[in-house]
Structures are given as C-alpha cells and as structure tokens.
Structures
1.
Amino acid sequence: MSSSIQSSNNSLRLRPRQIQNRQLYSGFILALTLVATIITVGALLFVLGYLLFKGVRSLDLNVITKGPAPMGMNGGGLRNGIIGTMIMLAIASTIGIPVGILGGIYQIEAKGKFVWIVRFFTDVLNGIPSVVIGLFIFIVVVGPTHQFSALAGGLALGILMIPTVMKTTEEILRLVPNALREASLGLGASRWRTMSSVILPAAKNGIITGIMLAVARVAGETAPLLYTAFGNTLFSIKLNKPIDALPLDIFTMATSPYASDNRLALAGAIILIGLIFFLSILTRFTTGRQFVEEK
Amino acid sequence: MSSTISKVVESAPTPADTPMPSVDQPQSPSPEPIIAVDHLNFYYGAYHALNDINMRIIPREITALIGPSGCGKSTFLRTLNRMNDLIDGARVQGQITLDGEDINHPAVDVVLLRKKVGMVFQKPNPFPMSIFDNIAYGPRIHGTTNAKKLNEIVEETLRGAALWDEVKDNLKKSAFSLSGGQQQRLCIARVLAVRPEVILMDEPCSALDPNSTFRIEQLMEDLRKEYTIVIVTHNMQQAARTSQHTGFFLRGVLNEFGETSNIFTNPVNKETEDYVSGRFG
C-alpha cells in the first residue's frame, strides 16, 4: 500500500511520512469496524430501548398473574400466554432435544455413502418457513383430531427445534479431539460407551448452548401456532385443547383497538425478549467454556 | 555410528535370566510367541501399506519397531489391536493371532481384544476427568463398580506407572493439571488398569523431555516382568537401549527382524545397516 521498500536509506527505520501513512490507514480501517459494530449494537439497543421505554410502565405483577381483562379495561395480564408458551416449549423440547442430539451423533458416528443425506435434509428442514411446518401439523394432527391443541403447537415447535439442535450437536461433537475417542476405544470400550462416557460429556457445554439457542428461537415463533395451538382467551393447561401463547398474545394485543391491550403487547414483547436474554445468560454462566477441559 | 550404538547396546542392562546367545552358538529355543503375524497385507483403500509381514512377538519381552517415517510401523502396530478398524477403507489380509486365536475372525469381540492388547499413544491423551476417574474408566466399563476395588486398582496402577508418589495427595485433580511426562505415565497407568497381556506403545516418548523419557524407559523395563511390550520408536538409541528384539520396517515391508544386538551391530541387510548407521532416515 504505502511504499514499503526503503528507497533512499538502508536503515531499518521508517521515515516519518511512512509512519504517518500507516497510522492513517490503520486508523481508517479501525474506524470502519467501529462504525459497523456501533450500527449492529445500536440497532439492538434501539429496539430494546424503545420497547423498554414505552412498555416498562405497563409491567406490573398483573401482567404475569392475570388473564385478559374485559375489553378496554385495565388490570389484564398475559398469564395464559406465558404459561402456554412454557408448556409448549416443554413439549417441543421432548421432541427437539433427543432427536436433535441423536441425529447429531448419527452424523458423526455412522459410516457410509448416505450419511450426507441426513445433513442435507436437516438443512432443508431448517429453511422451511415455520408457517409451513404449522400447516403440516395442522393437516396431520389438528385435522384428524378436529381439535386445536397445545400438543399440536408443541409438536410444531419441536420440529422447528430439531435442525438447530442437530446442527450444533454435530458441529460440537466434531470438535472433540479424536485422541479422546482413540484412548477410550483403546481401553476396550464399545463405541456407544465411548460416546456416552467420554465424548458427550466433553461436548456437554456446546450441546447445551445449542439447545438453549433452539429454545430461544422457537419461543418467539408465532405463525405455526396460529392454526395449531390457536390461542385461548381462557386459562388452560390441557394438552388436547387450544392454548394461548405469548407471541400470539403480542399479536392480538397489538392489533386490538384498545390502548390497554396495546400496552400489554409491549409488556409481552419485553417479557419475551427477557426470556431469550435470560436463556442466553444462563447458557453463558452454566457452561462458559466450550469444552469441559478443566474442573 | 554403529560402533556408538554397539557401545550403548553393550552397556545397556541385560536381564540376568536371558543369556544373550552369540552368533556362533545355536539359538536356544524361544518361548511360544504371544502374537504371531503371518503374511499380513494391509490396505488403506487401494494403497498397499503393509506387504507380507511375518513376525513373532515373544512374551515378556520388549520388541521395538523402527524405520523411517511412513514405513508402516505405526500402521502395523495398530493392526495388533485392530485400531485400524476405525479407518474407512482399511483392509486386512493374512493372519494375526493372539495366544493362538485369530484376532480378525468375524466372531471376535474387538472390545475384549482391546482389553487384552492395550495402547499408549504418541501424544498423551488423558480424558477430561480427574486422575482417579481416568484410571477407573477402564475397570468401570468392564464391570468393576466396587469403590474399594477401584481404589485398590488406582493405587496399584499408579504405583506401577511410577506416578503414585507424585499424585497420591489429590487424585481428584484434573488430569490436565499434570505435566506432559506425568500425563503419559497416567495413560500408561490407565492401560495397566484393564490388565492387558500386551501393551502397544506408539512413540510414547516422542513428545516428552529426556527426563520423562528416561523414567518411562525404566518403567518399561519394570513392566516387562509381567507384560509384553511392543514399541514403535523413531529413536534408534531408545530401541537399542530398551528392547530385546527389533524389527526394521522399510516402505511397508519388514526388512529385517532379529535380536536387538544383532540388528544394531551385525545386521544382515544393507538397508538395515544404512538405516541404523544413520545414512538415511
């Protein structure tokens, strides 16, 4: 870029002009990266800040403890949606976690020409819009049962969780040093024992991170729930009946004509973001390092 | 160069109960081999890595395998406990027997084989667990869960690996808190815990400092009383110091195999002579 070959003198030292040029160039690039960072962080902070500013006054105990109030009245809450979301996340996890982890293990351990197909289909599944997954469940579960249900909602979210968990599990297992596998097999351990006693524990942190990320992602999914869980204005924890969910609440509250509802929508958004934030912090504090290397 | 090596061989401790036969006298009958390799051919896919290897490993001896890089000695070592099964496209032809049994037979429990034929690797690879759990891992997977028994095994093997005094105060420490030489001795203790018959060592000292190397060589001589050891080494002096029989591998072929003193002072083949005198390597 700047003249790097000493033309006039033979010494190691740079001329003042060269030093200045290098510093300018370096400073310029640094400034660019700083701007990029500021834009990114700024956007996040702006959204969060706006929501907090506008919505914080609506946050009170009622929001988590009460169901919807009659139209236009204050004092209502998002309890139904919060509980509904938690129930469906639990159902989703019972599908997403085992299938995801086992699928990741399969991709690492199985041999053969067709193992790549699993990864390919997982990637495709990852790219399918969540509303289409919802449609699938609508046809396959809601149809025959003639019933919107929490179970259907949970199933849809579970399917959405699978690709994320599988992909992160596979990537993290791949990073476990092969030396550990050889050491275990060399002692006469079977492949499954090696996987369960040595490799999975070593990859534990990364896998948990993957699970948390997947849960955080599906917690906010709204479209598939529109015609699987459907939503419910009444409190329900029955798995075979329609159930409310936080993202659904945000939608209905935000589009409602009543100002009291709109405030609740903001509060709901804050809670949802808070949930995701909380999961991320939990991940960072319980796992920290990527590998369990030192106790 | 070979005169230096012959000096090392002559000054190396020879066990009192095995008199070294001189070249002129008839060989005393060698004991039943513990591992017998016959016409072994090994392929990585289409690549013919080992060519018609024939070898007998004598029990309670240290057998060294030497040769230049890429000659197949590590590959050969790994056929002895079927670690090559892990590699896609690996193919074995010929026969390898342990105590007379063919180890490549389809009905063989490879898990049990690896219990009998343990392996220590070039770079120490302790599990990310405590020192105690590292050693207890083997016995646990083979069915020992009694805490008292495990304690005994851990102490016994750590003593056997000359590591007990250094770690006995805190066995719950992470294995990674040990130095390289200690970690390697831990790996050796770990192998001892499953009571193998044969211990395979793949360049166990190449990542270690000379002091640790010396301690491990001493350890090997101790272990020889109960176990059979086969060691792959790049370090010819180490082979000369420690082993009773040596095999020289060259480009996938077992070029020469014989008593260590002969290989280093009076080799039959020119290539062997060239290698041990350092003309190539």
2.
Amino acid sequence: MNIDRLTVDSARTAVLEKQTTATALVDAFYQKIDAEDAAIGAYLTLCKERAYRQAARIDALADKGDALPPLAGVPIAVKDVFATKDVRTTAGSKILANFVAPYDATVVARLEEAGAIILGKTNCDEFAMGSSNENSGFYPVHNPRDHARVPGGSSGGSAAVVAAGTAVASIGSDTGGSIRQPAAFCGVVGLKPTYGRVSRYGLIAFASSLDHVGPFGKSVKDAALMLQCMAGREPLDSTSADVPVPNYLDQIGQPVRGLRIGVPEEYFGEGLDPEVRRAVEAGIQELAKAGCEIVPISLPNTKYAIPTYYVVATAEASSNLARYDGVRYGARAADGKTLAEMYRRTRDAGFGAEVKRRIMLGTYVLSAGYYDAYYLKAQRVRRLLASDFHQAFAKVDAIVTPTAPTPAFKLGEKMDDPLAMYLADIFTVTANLAGIPGISIPCGNSKEGLPIGMQILGKHFDEPMVLRVGHAAEHAMAGTVAE
Amino acid sequence: MPDENRVAALKEILDANPDDAFARYALGLEYSGSGETDAALAEFQRLLAVHPDYTNGYFMAAQALARAERKDEAQSLLQQGIECARRTRNQHALTEMEAMLDELERG
C-alpha cells in the first residue's frame, strides 16, 4: 500500500475493509520515518510500544467484526507540548528534556479513544515560541518541500509530518498562528478552532488566554474529521466551552452560492509578497466563481495587532513559565549555593534565547511602573481588535486573507532579527486575540515551488462555515496535497 | 533622544487636558527612558502635585533618579511611594518599591 497519499478517511477505510491492518500501517509508517525523518527532523520522540498496543486493539476490533471508532487505525503525530502518559514530553525545551508526563492531555486521550494511533511526538519551537521551528531546544525542522527552508512554527514538526507523509494527520497548538502559518509553509491544511472549542487540559501552557488546540491534515475533510473527535466541553479545562458540537462533516460539500466573503484591505497592503497576493486573490476569484459575493471590508485596528499580541503573550508566558525552576518542574542545574542561585542557573541553562527574551519582556510589561502603560493598554486594544471582527461578521459570513505575508523563508534568514520573525505572524495573531476560528488551506505555489496558504476566518463557534468555505475553495483551486 | 512622535502625541493630549494623569506619566517615562532625568522629574512632579495617589509616579521618578546616581533623592521618593502604595493598597507596586529601596540601602 502506498501510504504517501493516505487521508484520515482512506486510512480508516483500508482497515475497515481489511485491505490492510492497523499494525501493518504502523509498520509502514515507522519504516518511512526511519528512512526519511533524519533529513527533516520533524519527530523528537517515537512511541512505538504505545502505537503497536493501540494498533493491536484496533486489529482485534476489526477481526471480531465490531464497529470501528471514527479514527480507527489512523496514524497521527502529536506536537510535543501535549502531555502523553509515560512518554517523554519536552515542549521542545532542554529544561524538560527528560520529563515523562504522568497523564494524557484530554485531546490525546480523545483521539486515542476515537481509534487514532499516536506514532510519536513532533518537534516544535521551545514552549511554542517561534515562527520557524529554529527555536527548538534540540534541532530545527526542515521544510519537506525544500530542505533549505523552515517549515514555519511553532508547530513546524506537526505540519512537516503531514507534508512528508510520515503521519496521516497531526495536532498542534496555535497561540499566534502556530498551526496556520506552518500549514501554509508546508502546503497542508491547519485549523485553529474557536477559543474554548477544544480542551487545553494537558497542553503545556504558553499564553493561556491565546492558546488553542487544533488539527493538521491533507485536506479540509481530514481537519473536520479530527476536530469532530477533539471538540467539546470538558470540566478539567474551565475555559472549555459548554457549546454543543455540531456534525462538521455535514458542511463539507455544501454549496457556497450566496455566501458573503469579506476581504479586509488591511491584509493586502505593504509587506505582502506579490506572489502570495496573486495566489490568494486567485483563490478569492474561485470563490466568486462558485457564487460567493466578495465584499471589501475594513478591520481598522489590525496595525496594532502585533504589538498587542507581544505584550499580552509575553506577560502570560512570564507567569506560566515561572514553574520551571528546578523545584516544581525542570532539570535542576548543579552547583547552586543558594536557592536564588539554583533558580538562576536552572533557568539560564534550561531556556533558550527566545524564551528568555519573552520572559524578560513579559516581566517588564507586568512590572508595577509599566503595567498600566503596556499590559492594560494592550488589553484595551485587544477588545478593539475583537470589536473589528464583531462588526465585520455583521456584514459577512466569512473573511478570507493570506495566512502569512511570504512563503517559507530560508533557515537562518530571520534568526538575528526577532522583529522580522514576529511579522511572520502578522495575519494570524488577530484570530488568537479575538478567539475566532481560522483555517489555512493551500492555494498554490510560488515560482520556486513553495506552498502558499489562504486563511479563512469565521465567527465564534462557526467552524462549520470555515470548513464549508475552506472545502469549497480547496476543491475549486484543486490545490491540496491530497488527491 | 525621546521618540518625537510619541512626545508630540502626548503633549497634544496634555494641551487639551493638562490633568490627564496617564498622559503626564507617559511623558515622564519617555524622558526618563532617554536619560533626560530633569525633564522626566518635572513631569512626574506635576503629575504627583495633581494626583498624589498615582503610586507609580513616585516609583518611576525614583528609578530615574537612581539611574542618574542621585541615590538619596531616589530613596526619599521611594519612601513617599511606599506610603502612597500602603494608602492606596497597591500591593504590586509596594512589593517592587520595597525591593528597590532595600537594594539601594544595601548598595
């Protein structure tokens, strides 16, 4: 069986119809990982024992002729920011290099209950802080489409495994674009649901009011199938929403004629690569041909999104990462003569440069003298950004933008310029600040063959609309890696 | 040099409303951040004359003085700031000012 083009649906069908077994699928994927992942670096840890145990469970169900769960036998990968019981969980950081989680994140447990097989944990920027995966405490990930280029970040490993075909689907976290931007760079689909749609219990926190959990797949349908098994209220995460989970597949293939699609002028201005602009505008034209009404709109406070994001996110990070002190969590550095010295040495040795930069920035904006000037102001601007979307969605059903201003850049290209790196998220942070759902779908390639992503945003909990428009655009453009 | 655009914007707000506490405080921060200690202190003093409970005004004025190595004046402002923080129950600022005062007294 050629596993390169397997989708969530076709993998399950292959097991259901006994074209293969779950165990044989796992064998095939580990052979491919052994042969190909060294050049990409997408996996940090493989969990073979767990994967084969789960495959045997699925095969036993299939042998008995029992009904198979919705993701039965689907080999997936999990970003290494999700707790996985008895498996190393590092968040891409040396400070957690040997941490073995004592429990499963809710999303991991739900996916396994649904029959998915976890092949391993994927590489990421340290504590999910980065836009290129070069901030991993272990090794960078290479873009499967061009090994000289980054896969995006912070969930670069999770995007790369789907693009490389070393997993059928995967999950990641998205605090400022960390699912959608790597999806765009690697030519796959990445979905960030509404804040509260998927439980964050067991997700290693970066910025709790901005962190979201979502899937990667080869198609919009794959993303919908994964989300179906991940979404829903769970009491262990008090921010998970008590909102019924609709049947997301119902929307796949529904006509889009008559839908109003907003195109915000602020996302097509200075700094947008001309090839990205052309590809996204062509995608919008395809939606128009399918009968959508294209409506120019304005999101006037967009220019404040990046500074607002980097105040709020770093403030929350400085608080969340206080626990890595060598006592509560983290590998303790030796030779500390006092408690304060032990804390300092542990954090100095364990954290990388970008994490330290963000902790310091966050501590600064939360300090008494600057709290009003930065943090409180940022919270007020965040409300303005959310209000922009609220007003726009009174006029349109969905909003379409580029996912990132450029295609994937070269490894090392932006590492000396943090501000340039932060701007890679300029079109994605707004959805995190507002908490609305967004998906990135492939919409063509640059002249150099690099994938370009188109982002579709919807109202809170309107994932069905995002998936409906995404699926229509995907098929109109025929630009996915799945066939 | 302070950021001229920000200074001009803050002055415009203060021309319209000279008692705007945050704009006055932010102007003091702009001067302080660029090392213009006397200009910064003038703004913080005007702020505290009108808004004596604006705790962070004492704290930031003390920081500007400490950077200019005017330690005695910094300590005096911190003591006033600590009184203000207790009066206004601003625990956040109180903790940070006490720590700074402790550092100045030790070093």
3.
Amino acid sequence: MTLWIDVSCILAVFLALTLLATHRIVGMIKIFALQSFLLSLVPLFLHADSLSGRDLLFSFGTMVLKGVLVPAILFWAIRHISMRSEIKPVIGLGTSILFGAVLIAVAFWVSLSLRLPGKLFSSLVLPCSLATMLLGFMIMVTRTRAITQVLGYMVIENGIFLFALSLFDAMPALIEMGILLDIFVAVFIMAIVLNHINEEFERTGGSASRAKMGETL
Amino acid sequence: MLSFLILMPVLGALAMLLPVRTSFRLWFLCGVSFLHASVTASFWRQLPASEWQGYLVLDPLGLILLSVISLLFLSVSVFMIGYFQHEHRGNRIFTACLLSLLSMMTLVSVSYHMGLLWVAIETTTLFSAPLISFHRNQGSLEATWKYLLVCSVGIALALMGTFFLAIAAHDIHTLFLPAILSGASSLSVNWLKLSVIFLFVGYGCKMGLAPMHSWKPEAYGQATGMVVVLMAGGLTQCSFLALMRVSQICYKTGLNDFYASILIVTGVLSLGVPAVLLLGEKNLKRSFALSSVEHMGLLVLGLGLGGVGIFGALFHMINNALAKVVMFLTAGSVAQKYGSSRASEVQGVIHIYPVTGVLLLAALFAGTGMFPFATFHSELLIINAAIISKHYLLPGLIILCLAVIFIGMARIVLEFVYGASTEPVLAKKENLFMNLTIALAAAALIGLGLWVPAPLSRVLHDAVVLIGAS
C-alpha cells in the first residue's frame, strides 16, 4: 500500500502546482476539491490490511467537509461576488510555476535533514507535505483576490493534513475531528465576510471604493 | 464543574438566538457572566478535579487566565447595558457570538492537551471575527478580513508546531501536558526546537507580537470598545497561556535558554515598534491598539527573563486586562458619543463630558504604567528581572521605549481631553452603567497597585513554580 500513498503524495504536490498555474477561479476550486478528495483516501491506504471504523470515519469526514462542502461554499461565494477569473497575479503564471518548482526542490532538500522517528510508511510524506504547504503560501502571496487567498490557505491546510497522517496514531480522533471542523467553519465564516464586503461595496457604489481597496475581492 | 462552565455559555448562546427583546438579551448576558464569575470565584477556595479523562484540568496558570476572562466578561456585560441604549443595531448574533467566545476562552484556560488547546484557540478566532464587523461598514469588514486571514494562517503554523511536538513526543505517544512534562527526557530535541519555533510564531501571531502585529491596529480600531476589551485583555492572553505551556515544556527539557532568547528578542521588538508608530498616530483606538502590542511585548519579556520576571508577567496579565477595560471601554464610549475616534474630529471631551474626560486621563495613566496603577508595579518587576538576569542593556532599552510610548500616548490623549471642544453627535449626557464599569476597573487597578491580597499572591507564586523558575 506504500505505493498508493506515494502516488497520492506526488499527485497532491502536482495538483498544488497546477493550482498555482491556473487562471480561472472555478478551475482552481475544482482542482482543490480533487486534491482534498485524494488526501482523504490516504487514511484508507494507511491501514489497508485492517481497516478500523475510525479510519473510515476520518476518511469520510474529510471527504465530505473538504472535498464537497468547502468547494460548495466557495462556489456559493463566487456566485454572489460574480467574479470568475483572477485579474492580474502579482507575478506571471510562467514565473510562478518556476518559483513553485524551486519551492518543491527546497522542500525536498529541507526534509533530507529531518528524520522522522519510528516506522515510516513512506519517505515521500514529509517532503510532499512541506512542498504543498510552501505552494499554498505561494498562492496566498501571489494572488490578489480574496477568494484565491482562501484557496491558498486551504492548500496550506491540506499540506498540514498530509503531514498529520504520519502521526495518525498519536492524535485522538476527537481532536482530529475538532481540527477538521475548525478549518471548515473558518472557510464558512470567510465566505460570509466576503459576501458582506461585497454587499457593502454594492450599497456604497462599488467601483471607486473597490479601486481604492486595491482589488481585494 | 469545569464542563458546566464551558457548556453553560454555549446554552446561553443558543438562547440568545431566540427572538426576544434586545434588553432581555443584555440582562441575560449579565446573568450568565455573573454566574460564570461566581463559579470561577469558588475555584479560588479550592481547585476543581480534572474532567473528561484529564483533558480539562484547572491549574494556577489557568485559574489566573480564567479569572481574568470572567472579570472581563462581567465588566463588558454591565457596560453593554449602557451602550445599547444608544445603539439601534440588533444584538442577536453579537450576543450569541460573545457567549460562544466566553465558552471557548474558558476551554482554553482549562485544556490540558496541546491538541485541544489548539482547537480551542482557533475557535476563539472564528467567534471573534463576527464581533469585529459588528458595525458592518467598509472599514470594519476590511479589518475582519485581515484579522481572519492573518490569524488563520498564523494558527495554521501553530497546528504544524503541535504536530512537530507530537513527533518529538513520539515515544510518549500522547500530547497530554502532564505526560509530556514527566517524559520530558525522552523528547527528541531537534523536533522539539522546530516545534517551539512554529508554536511561538503561530500563537505569537494571535497574540499580536511585533513582527506579526499588522492585524491589530485595524481590528482594534474598527471593532467596538467592548469587543476590543475582550480581545486585548482575553484572547491575546489566551495565546499567552499557550506560550507559557510551551515554556513549561522547554524548562523540563533544558531548552530554556533557546526559548528565552526568542522571547526576549520578540519582546524588545514589540516594545520598539509601537514606540515608533505611536508618535505619528492620529486615531485614539489605533494608538491604544499599539499600546496593546507593547503590553504583549512586556508579557513575553517577563516570561523570557525568568525568575521574578515570570511573577511580573503573571501579575501583568491581570493588570493588563484591567487597564484594557479602562482604556478601550473609555475609547468605545468616546467613539459612540462622537461617532469617530480621530483626533481631527474629537477634541475637548472634558468640557462636554467631564466624567468621560477624567476616565480618559485615567486610561492614559493606566495604559502607560504610571503610579499608583498596578501596571506600574508589574512593569517595574519585569525591568527588575532584566537587571537581575544581568542583561544590563535591556532595562535601559525597555525604559526608553516606555518613555517614548508615554509621550506618544499623552500627545493624542491630551489633545482629546483638553483641545478646543467639538460637537458630539449624541446628547450631552453621561451614562451611569458605562462610567461605573470603567471607574470600578480603574479603582481595582489602583487597589492592586497599593495592596496585593494574600490569596492572589499565593496563586501567583504557585503559577510561577509551575513554569519552573524558583
């Protein structure tokens, strides 16, 4: 089963890189949903020979919250804000892919010197989770739209999630579910605040103040 | 008893969502805060037993924080009765979020599991966000957004730090604080160092320490005074509790010097940055927000210096909370009366509202640590700790920063109080509930400055022993 975990890790990084190079917000949300779905399968691969109820519950919970509900909320938000594409990233898409590649190299280089104690099921988990986190930060920094910043935040969380799987046994299930729920509610509240900001702009006669605020939406 | 203290506000929050009269909600909120405060007060007699299989434990450190939180909520809920006499916006979501926040802050102060601590602190961020955007105007929404994003990302780093801690504690296989402390020798030092850095940056971000303070002037400047009191006196100190938990672990594993150097550098930065920024500030609430960055800096400095510094920091937690009540409730009441807190629009408060003017002066002295306010004593203890620990440059630096901060604060507050008077938007009438709350907090602060009661001093000493200094 280590093979499947490796494949998931590499795909997660690959999808984060694709996210960095995607222009359309709808496309970005879909890629994020795919990444979350993929990561939610990893707990099943971990204990493939003896699946416990907890693995199933955790995997299912992640799938529903991150793979379905969070993308649904984000879709709801962009429908209300009615903006479909990124206006202008801080740096061009080509350049950001190049930077992304550098970040992946950095993540692998850093994790060479870090040694996880105990039995390690896959040597790719640590570098891949670091790379996903760094790419998430990259998305947050280079994109100007609020909704893409939320996506960047969620990619960081996905990276942390991948890392958390390596110590799946140390964390009580209750805490894991609490963490998941918190992240879900965070996105929910962010979407609501975004919606309020948008309403406020429309009420006060949008474009001038929007220009003043510097394309935050 | 502990789970009652956590669940009771949640039930209250649900009751707030029912369609009832605005004034009923306010009195109900008062009732819940009073109940919370009286249960907390009973813990001073005897600490309660642990609950939920050891997840919830109240130790002296937690007791100090819990009492501070309880006190803050009590004063805010009394203040709100006065505030909502002139506020026409509905308070359904507002009060529900307040009570949920109370519940989560209580959970922070009693959680004895590093994972649960993270969950509770993250949840406080989520419940405080809707409170900041209470006025729903462009500025407050923008501030809410900034707060949410900066703190969420910061807290995500703390989550990473918590996982690193779990790896460091691989042999112990749990994140319960007592287990980590007793098995400290088996922790892997390299992972622990990494974990300490991530936890510090993450929780420091939530605390608003200097390089990560960017959300603070915005959020405190836009939120109403009551919310800021809870954030500056309660939420930030919840994160400080997390930093103290890290300190406990570092002490047991001999990483004390490593952690102390991080704390001292950040502490000095958190004193220097607001000192520079305050000199050009034109907004009362924003300048108070910068002063709050300074107080957070003092807290981590005290923790980093160790010994009497820890005692000073713990004492400063209480004083800081009381000072924040005086400062931000006065600022809130001024902002409500004038519809602004910019120096260009509000001047000569003392000519129109004599009591509020005097309270504003008290806020200046309480916030900058003047005698006889207790903030003076805790700041002195922290400076003293710097001298004892032979950092001879540090006391001079601290005093210089405090002096500059005093000049910056005095400049704006005196202009507010004594300038040529401008017309307020509200009727020229003082409000009893609002002024009484502030005056009581100021009196308590002076009282603590003159005399520290024996039980308080005992609990402070017990808490210092927990962190590890002699």
